[in-house]
C-alpha cells in the first residue's frame, strides 16, 4: 500500500476500499472462506453452537503483552469456548478513524492473523468503515465468534451447586493494571504485562478429561469479584473465596496498593474461572497447571448454600466481608 495514512476513500466501497481489503486484510486474514469476497460466508457447522460478539475499544491500542487486534480475537474466542465449544469462525468489523497510520493498521491486522492462527479459528467475513477524523478514537473492532459445542451438558453460570470447588487458572488483575499503567505513563519496579491470550485449547483438554464442569467464565470487565457475583446470582448460591489463596502477582498487588485499586475488580483477558464438583478439583488443577496458560492455577474457594446470590471473602484472620458487584466503570476502555 502506497498511502501512509488511512483515507476516507478507503471506506467508500470503491477501488480504494478494494485495495485496502486485498492488499492488507486478505494478506493477513485470508483463507478459503474470506478470499471468496462474497457478501456472506457459507459455513459448514454442526449444532448445537456457541455464538458470542464483543466490541473492542481499548486505549491505548498497543500495550505490553498485546494490542487491540489480538485482544479482539482472544476475547471472543474465550467467550465462545466458555460454553464448552470449539471456536471455529470469526467475523470482524472495523471502524477506523481517518488519518490512522497505515503501518499501525497493518500491525493490528497482522496481530489478528497470528492470534487467529494460534487459536485455530478462521476469519470468514468482515466489514470496514472509515469515519472522519475525530468521530472515533483511532480504531474500534467488533468480532463475532461461532463454535461447535462438544460436551453434552454445557457449562453455564446457572449450574454452580453447593459443594462445588472454585478454581482460577492464574493471577488476577494483570490486564487491567497493564492498560492503566501504559495509558497513564506509570512504571513499577517490575513491568506489568497483559495476560491477553486464547484459552480454547486448554478448555478443550479440561472438558475432554472431566465430564462434570459446571461453570466456565473468563473474568474480564469487573474482574473476579464481579464475575463471581454474576454466577452467584444466576445459580442462587453463595460463592465463598479465601483471600490468601487468590493468586495476585507482587507487582500487580503493589501497583494496586499505590493507586488505591482492588486487583479482584481488575480485568483479565487470559484467565478463567472453573467451578466443578470438589472431587474433580485436583484433576482439573493438574490439567491446568500442565499448560503455560494455567501454570498458576489455584483452588480459591467453594460454593455454599448459606447466602444465595452473595460473594463472601474470608480473610487470613478468619474475618469475612461481602464482595459486591462493581458499581460503575473503575477503568474505562480496558478491552
Question: What labels would you give this structure?
Answer:
single chain, alpha+beta, 4-stranded mixed beta sheet, 335 residues
Helical content, roughly?
25-40%
The count of β-strands is 13
- Assign the structural class, choosing from mainly alpha, mainly beta, alpha/beta, alpha+beta, or little secondary structure: alpha+beta
Radius of gyration: 21 Å
> Which sheet architecture does the biggest sheet show?
7 strands, mixed
Binned strand content: 15-25%
Gross geometry: globular
Poorly predicted spans: none
Q: How large is the count of helical segments? A: 8
Provide the spatial order of strands within the biggest beta sheet.
8-10-7-11-9-12-13
Mean pLDDT, to the nearest integer, reads 96
Calculate the terminal CA-CA distance, rounded to whole Å.
Answer: 29 Å
H/E element sequence: HEEEHEHEEEHHEHEHEHEEE
Overall description:
It is a single chain. The chain has eight helices and 13 strands. It has 335 residues and is α+β, with helices and mostly antiparallel strands. The protein has a seven-stranded mixed sheet. It is globular and about 65 Å long.
Topology:
Elements: H1 15-29, E1 49-56, E2 62-63, E3 66-67, H2 68-81, E4 85-97, H3 102-119, E5 122-131, E6 139-149, E7 164-168, H4 174-184, H5 200-209, E8 215-217, H6 223-235, E9 238-242, H7 250-259, E10 273-277, H8 281-289, E11 298-304, E12 311-314, E13 320-322
Parallel strand pairs: 4-5, 9-12
Antiparallel strand pairs: 1-6, 2-3, 4-6, 7-10, 7-11, 8-10, 9-11, 12-13
Helix pairs in contact: 1-3, 2-3
Amino acid at each position: 500500500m502506497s498511502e501512509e495514512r488511512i483515507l476516507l476513500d478507503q471506506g467508500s466501497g470503491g477501488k480504494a476500499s478494494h485495495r485496502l481489503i486485498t492488499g492488507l486484510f486478505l494478506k493477513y486474514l485470508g483463507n478459503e472462506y474470506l478470499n471468496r469476497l462474497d457478501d456472506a460466508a457459507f459455513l459448514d457447522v454442526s449444532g448445537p453452537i456457541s455464538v458470542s460478539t464483543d466490541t473492542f475499544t481499548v486505549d491505548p491500542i498497543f500495550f505490553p503483552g498485546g494490542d487491540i487486534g489480538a485482544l479482539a480475537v482472544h476475547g471472543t474466542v474465550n467467550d465462545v469456548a466458555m460454553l464448552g465449544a470449539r471456536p471455529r469462525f470469526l467475523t470482524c468489523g472495523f471502524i477506523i478513524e481517518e488519518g490512522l497510520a497505515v503501518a499501525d493498521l497493518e500491525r493490528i491486522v497482522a496481530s489478528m492473523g497470528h492470534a487467529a492462527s494460534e487459536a485455530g479459528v478462521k476469519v470468514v467475513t468482515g466489514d470496514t468503515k472509515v469515519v472522519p477524523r475525530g468521530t472515533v478514537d483511532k480504531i474500534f473492532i467488533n468480532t463475532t465468534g461461532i463454535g461447535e459445542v462438544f460436551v453434552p451438558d454445557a457449562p453455564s453460570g446457572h449450574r454452580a451447586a453447593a459443594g462445588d470447588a472454585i478454581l482460577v487458572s492464574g493471577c488476577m488483575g494483570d490486564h487491567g493494571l497493564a492498560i492503566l499503567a501504559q495509558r497513564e505513563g506509570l512504571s513499577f519496579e517490575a513491568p506489568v504485562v497483559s495476560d491477553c491470550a486464547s484459552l480454547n485449547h486448554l478448555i478443550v483438554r479440561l472438558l475432554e478429561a472431566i465430564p462434570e464442569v459446571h461453570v466456565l467464565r473468563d473474568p474480564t470487565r469487573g474482574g473476579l469479584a464481579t464475575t463471581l457475583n454474576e454466577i452467584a446470582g444466576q445459580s442462587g448460591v453463595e460463592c465463598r473465596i479465601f483471600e490468601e489463596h487468590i493468586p495476585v502477582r507482587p507487582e500487580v498487588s503493589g501497583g494496586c496498593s499505590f493507586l488505591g485499586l482492588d486487583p479482584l475488580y481488575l480485568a483479565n483477558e487470559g484467565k478463567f474461572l472453573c467451578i466443578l464438583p470438589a472431587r474433580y478439583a485436583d484433576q482439573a488443577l493438574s490439567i491446568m497447571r500442565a499448560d503455560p496458560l494455567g501454570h498458576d492455577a489455584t483452588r480459591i474457594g467453594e460454593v455454599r448454600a448459606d447466602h444465595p446470590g452473595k460473594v463472601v471473602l474470608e480473610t487470613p484472620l478468619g474475618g469475612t466481608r461481602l464482595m459486591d458487584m462493581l458499581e460503575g466503570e473503575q477503568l474505562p476502555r480496558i478491552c
